Amino acid sequence: MADEEEEAELSEKQKIEIAKWFLLNSPPGEIQYVAKEIVSADVKSILNDDDLFHEAASDAFSLYNKSHLISLKMPGRSGDLLVTTFGELEVNAYLDPRTAQVAKVDHVKQVCTEVRPATDEELPSPYIEEFRCALDAEILKYVGEAYPKGVCSVYCVNGKDVEGPGSDFELVVVISAARHSPQNFCNGSWRSVWNILFKDDQQIVEVKGKMQVGAHYFEEGNVQLDAKHECKDSTLFQAPEDCALAISSIICHHETEYLASLEASYLNLPDSTFKDLRRKLPVTRTLFPWHNTLQFSLTRDISKELGIGK
Amino acid sequence: MEAAMGLMRRIPPKHTDTALSALLSLLPHHSSDLLSQVDQPLQVLCDADCGKEFILCEYNRDADSYRSPWSNKYYPPLEDGSLPSLELRKLEIEANDIFTVYCDQYYEGGTSSVYMWEDDNEGFAACFLIKKDGSKTGQGRRGYLEEGGWDAIHVIEVGPEEEGTTNYRLTSTVMLTLTTNNESSGTFSLSGSLRRQEKQLKNIIDMSMRLSIAEGHICNMGRMIEEMESKLRNSLDQVYFGKTREMVCTLRPPSEVAQMRMPES
């Protein structure tokens, strides 16, 4: 009996894992739909326990929201909050560095429920804040120009308490743009994360970028794009405003180049890349000669019958 | 079931395998529905008798063994495995020979298999399968693809003959994945799956009275499949990939290239 119980428990755990796997593999902007489908695919009744399902869901939603860098409207007119690991202060509480507020997030509902002013301990020192603020202003300008629906944020992830020159610190620029149009059977997202390491001793700034683009088109089919790229660059350690300009122009340059290389990949598809899977026309450049093949096999049949084939 | 199919339409096609086995363990009472409605990437086995590979599917499976179209034997060996009638087997052999040539001309490599079986209403059914590994380590002749697969499944139900004509109902699925990878553009990966259905009423004997009915069938089925494959390839290329490209351009319009800002200092 004990064995049976154990087995049942294990399989319940596995079911939660399966539910999580589906949620985490949802295309951009589709986790809510996937959750609904899981529930109606009877997983919930198999799980037999609302709390367990909710636990699986809240885990998966939180991971999904952070990895997809989703943006949520903050109450009042505080603008958009990006849900990222860089701004995560505690479970469900995220820092918005621009407005110096901490927002409470309901991961499963994907809404921001309330905000409070951040405490001094949660914010970087005035020295760091000068660099962060200047960069945020430049990135905001760039994102406004380049992305019709882009949201961005600049975080300090290392050395936020550095009081002045003499120590290294690290900022992170996050850019996220999503477009959901289920009525047109299409969803997509652009995510980029730029780690910016200010090296005080060498007086240089190292820039490392990760860009990820996803798209899903599902009218009578299921086609998904998943593209990723990483790059590196560097610039001189200068005054906050000069650094901000140099860094945002590096980011702009790499993102523009990446977009161009995506375009090139698409242009190469029909004539080269796709050809290695299936040609548009046979090697003979004419439709397959079904008619002749039949005649060919007919004559072979006849020769078989006449006993001259073998 | 509907919800399960809904999930399959959302999960990235390259994860179809994992998603299907997850659903099977979750919904064991729907397993036969799932297996027949969810198209999975094709697997191959080697026919030891003639050293040729053949493709596995539900239609050449009996118990845990699969019948090779080349030797007509089951692997692993199975006694009393079901076989098509002699007449149908003759047509199957013919179809396999011709489809090998077809596959070679369109795919420049790849594996093909054709299976036929009698159905309940005087007609028969056939399944044409193609699997191509287009990666540069596989059979991609041009070497563009880091990873690339094309799996095509065509099932044709052939109705009973009536006054020299018969109904063909074709259901085709194409699943593909392609990934390119290079230093300047990173990894670029597209995956997709499409399923379409088509009905046609055709003359069985449409070219020459001397041709047997059986040979007329292959010609008719072959043309339908060729047309359908071209259609599917075209819609993937033009429509489906095009839509994802449009999405990328909506997220970050390329016109911005012209206004690239330079540092003012």
Automatic annotation (TrEMBL), chain A:
PROSITE patterns: F_ACTIN_CAPPING_A_1, F_ACTIN_CAPPING_A_2. It holds the Pfam family F-actin_cap_A. Keywords: Actin capping, Actin-binding. GO terms for molecular function: actin filament binding. GO terms for biological process: actin cytoskeleton organization; barbed-end actin filament capping. The keyword Magnesium does not apply. The keyword 4Fe-4S does not apply. InterPro entries: CapZ_alpha, CapZ_alpha/beta, CapZ_alpha/beta_2, CapZ_alpha_1, F-actin_cap_asu_CS. Gene3D superfamilies: F-actin capping protein, alpha subunit, F-actin capping protein, beta subunit. One of its GO terms (cellular component) is F-actin capping protein complex. Belongs to the F-actin-capping protein alpha subunit family. Heterodimer of an alpha and a beta subunit. F-actin-capping proteins bind in a Ca(2+)-independent manner to the fast growing ends of actin filaments (barbed end) thereby blocking the exchange of subunits at these ends. Unlike other capping proteins (such as gelsolin and severin), these proteins do not sever actin filaments. This is F-actin-capping protein subunit alpha. It comes from Senna tora.
UniProtKB/TrEMBL annotation, chain B:
Belongs to the F-actin-capping protein beta subunit family. It is found in: Cytoplasm, Cytoskeleton. It comes from Senna tora. The lineage of its organism: Eukaryota, Viridiplantae, Streptophyta, Embryophyta, Tracheophyta. Transmembrane segments: none annotated. It comes from the Eukaryota. Keywords: Acetylation, Actin capping, Actin-binding, Cytoplasm, Cytoskeleton. This is F-actin-capping protein subunit beta. GO terms for biological process: actin cytoskeleton organization; barbed-end actin filament capping; cell morphogenesis. The keyword Transcription does not apply. Heterodimer of an alpha and a beta subunit. One of its GO terms (molecular function) is actin filament binding. One of its GO terms (cellular component) is cytoplasm. InterPro entries: CapZ_alpha/beta, CapZ_alpha/beta_2, CAPZB, CAPZB_N, F-actin_capping_bsu_CS. F-actin-capping proteins bind in a Ca(2+)-independent manner to the fast growing ends of actin filaments (barbed end) thereby blocking the exchange of subunits at these ends. Unlike other capping proteins (such as gelsolin and severin), these proteins do not sever actin filaments. Gene3D superfamilies: 1.20.58.570, F-actin capping protein, beta subunit.
